[in-house]
Amino acid sequence: MKTLQNKRILLGVTGGIAAYKSAELVRRLREQGAEVQVVMTRGAFEFITPLTMQALSGRPVHTELLDHDSEAGMGHIELARWSDVILIAPGSANFIAKLTYGMADDLLSTLCLAADVPLLVAPAMNQQMWRNRATQANIETIMQREISILGPAEGDQACGEVGPGRMLEAVQLLHAVEAIFQNSMLAGKHVIVTAGPTREAIDPVRYISNRSSGRMGYAMARAALEAGANVTLVSGPVSLQAPDQVNCVKVNTAKEMRDVVLSNADDADIFIAAAAVADYRCEEIAEQKIKKSEKTLSIKLEKNPDVLADVANLLSSPFTVGFAAETESLKDNAIKKLKGKGLDMIAANLVGDELGFDKEDNALEVFWSGGSLSLQTAPKEKLARQLVHAIALNYYEKHSNKAH
Ligand code: PMT
Question: Measured at the alpha carbon of residue 31, what is the angle toward residues 27 and 2, in degrees to the nearest 5?
């Protein structure tokens, strides 16, 4: 499997001869399935052209803080929101000093301030500049802010000197990025995720359904997998590909979804219901295609089982996480569902024409007894990782309380 599938890496290139290695790094990141956007400082232009980075990343290179053309419609806030990780390689002594003081006088330094994602810096500079007490003090300061420093390596330098200051090789930086996405928070846990819509037949060619694309649920399944879980994904009809390591079971109707979920729930530790299950199905499914002979047509609907409530009501139920899709009163309605269905957590999203369903981005308000969390607008993949992290923390808290 490609290790960085669906991961969004923002590569910041600052001025230094090691910038040539960044070109190789872009290639390696993309080989592993990552989407890469490159931001270059003015200093970087002296060492490598934006055209090279554009060709390798397959995307326009971002350079200017206020030039809308160069930013190709993506400003610093959008870029910060877009990224899963920011890697600065090479990181010059000057850029490290800017990071230390929180300066925001160009695109790269500004988006480093605006981002709330892991920030990695691969320093590259002359050995004396690296050893200088000012640089060392800056490195110490930024490490206290949980900025990771990768390297530098020791050896021959472009300036003819020998010592520490060489940027790590592209493959070493690739491994450091891969390590960010591998965690073991849910190692050994069985997580069931539902995703996508259900389809309730009206006749042999028509059905009732909704606009769920399955993206949110598939992203949850992937995030649980990355956290080390064994994942069962129970999916309604969508056009997405599940990761190979996930046990994906395809269903059509709410009843089928319920049966598959319940037959897997015995040894499940966590159940995450991201599917948009149809609340009603036709009381009778016409055996033949319904003809348009009548002026009006009434179809009698009956209630579907509630998959999530049925799991939460099991005698030994897993840790249950619902989603709430609301067009109004997000918090009130979500808390009603949290309490009404007896859930451990609920992630609420506003849905409508431009929100929630079938969109790349989403925003979530997460609630549980005694706590809440706001996850700002971001790609669903990124939100899923944040939500899985919050679920794992709550899961372990519940189980440590049970043990005491
Ligand atoms: O698939 P995408 O295009 O990415 O869109 C994502 C999403 C908007 C569908 C997703 O984020 C989301 O909100 N999923 C839940 C949709 C929903 O059915 O919400 P609800 O408020 O109607 O239901 C509350 C909870 O009960 C949900 O966890 C739902 O899965 C569950 N439910 C509902 C009805 C039912 N019969 N069985 C259920 O299990």
Answer: 150
